Amino acid sequence: MMTVLVMVGTGVAWSSLRSLESGINRISTAALGGGGDDGAVDILLVGMDSRTDAHGNPLSEDELATLRAGDDVSTNTDTIILVRIPNNGRSATAISIPRDSYVQAPDLGKTKINGVFGQVKLEKMKELVEQQGEDAATAEPKAVEAGREALIKTVAKLTGVTVDHYAEVGLLGFALITDALGGVNVCLKNAVDEPLSGANFPAGWQKLNGPQALSFVRQRHDLPRGDLDRVTRQQVFMASLAHDIISGQTLSSPSTLSRLRNAVQRSVVLSDGWDIMDFVQQMQKLAGGNVAFATIPVLAEDGWSDDGTQSVVRVDPAQVQQWVAGLLQDQADGKTEKLAYTPGNTTVDVVNDSDINGLAAAVSEVLTEKGFVAGKVGNNEADHVTSSQIQAAKSDDLGAKAIAEQLGNLPVIENASVPSGAVRVVLSHDYTGPGSGLEGGSHTVTQSASDTTDSGTTTPVPPSPIITAGAADPKCVD
Predict the structure, then answer these.
(1) 72 pLDDT band (50/70/90 cuts)?
(2) Which of 458, 101, 86 is closest to 283 using CA atoms?
(3) Range of the domain at 99
(4) Where are the beta strands (DSSP E) in 315-472?
(5) Residues in a beta bridge with 303
(6) What angle in degrees, to the nearest 10, is found between the helix axes of 254-267 and 14-22?
(7) Which helix or strand (DSSP H or E) is residue 110 part of?
(8) Which among 214, 233, 207, 201 has a CA at the least distance from the CA of 172?
């Protein structure tokens, strides 16, 4: 999916694009918007766990075996990514939604987001065939359209973003596109051998072919954060792909373009009314370093559904919408450095300049839970302060600003003695923020009544890293 966007953003010959576009399966859906007032384009990219190609033709036995697809005939949408391209065309932000996110879906109530498409499609088929007596062959496309519309509306409701265009690719397409490009480079922190996905790779850098890439991005068992690490793998894969295409000569070969054209035409579905040639003109300014991949915030990666029968990823829609709005605003403002920042980039020392026992340790725990790296914790022995503050080498340090937001907007004070990449939090008697135990200062996050199975609280999940397709190779991952 991302390959098509990257292609149109890198100035590939218009004749090649027009040839590619002519054979893509187009679909219509009433759930798409017409573009926001800001001129930005919002695209929903969906990876289907399907056993057919983009035109509905069943995959061959050899293809199914190569893809390790098994006998499952589900239509789960196991990759869901919302891409925003602002009207200046100079950046792109891809927001991943974990497949097990527990969300409110039209006419379904609370459910996993990856099952919305399939559930609605099945219900529509039953209505058309069993109740109205329609032939299954003619009912199928109507049911599929209903599934797509339900997914689009669910994503829009969760993120607060109106979807303008829709792109869909199946298992086969992912492998075909990877092979057409000659493979994609990835890096693993550790060797893996997970038979369910077929992921069997050494540690370090390596180039994956199509089937290997599919195993790489589908693995979620034996990973520290399960589905969240799977999402991160998908992001570093796409970042590596985007980096290779934008910075190299990947698409300069006629044979490569021919293979890619055949792969895309067989595996990609695009919404009707999406003029790729107009999109090319808008995307001409895109630079490789301005493609960022992020994951929505989650409350619990190992939560349970309201009825207690399913393991889910719990999310707070209000938190997600606020986060998405902030991320997209940063993108529109050209703050690419801020987009690339993650809490893991900052080590935090917390010192207690009050007589409140345990205050520094409690605040350090709050920040560690948010993903910041724990530094020294203790009492302030020198340079006493009269009010709580955050000290950093520079007043505009991104880590200091992020910590300030977490601790109730404490002031950031420039202090040349604080090393780069580190921040010092100094807590005085006036501190009432998270970790203080005072009203409004609890560092637990309470789920809303509609998003919890009990009256308790949950520890916040550290945010996933934001990955960029810049000049440097994407990071190594679990």
Answers:
(1) low
(2) 86
(3) 2-340
(4) 347-352, 373-379, 389-392, 412-414, 422-427, 467-468
(5) 312
(6) 30
(7) strand 109-112
(8) 214
Query: How far, in Å, CA of 220 to CA of 189, rounded?
Result: 15
Q: How many CB atoms lie within 10 A of CB 219?
A: 21
**Domain end call among 340, 365, 384:** 340
- The number of domains in the chain is 2
State residue 109 phi and psi, 5-degree precision. Answer: 80, -150
Element (H, E) at 236: helix 227-247
pLDDT tens-place string over residues 405-428: 889 889 999 999 999 889 999 999
In 34-85, DSSP assigns E strands to: 41-48, 77-85
User: Over 277-333, what HEC string results?
Assistant: HHHHHHHCCCCHHHEEEEECCCCEEEEECCCCCCEEEECCHHHHHHHHHHHHHHHHC
In a domain, 464, yes or no: no
* Dist CA 92 CA 84 (whole Å): 6
Answer whether 336's CB lies under 8 Å from 398's CB. no
Separation of alpha carbons 25 and 316, rounded Å: 35
For residues 426-450, give the mean pLDDT: 64
Tens of pLDDT, residue by residue over 116-138, are 999 999 999 999 999 999 999 99
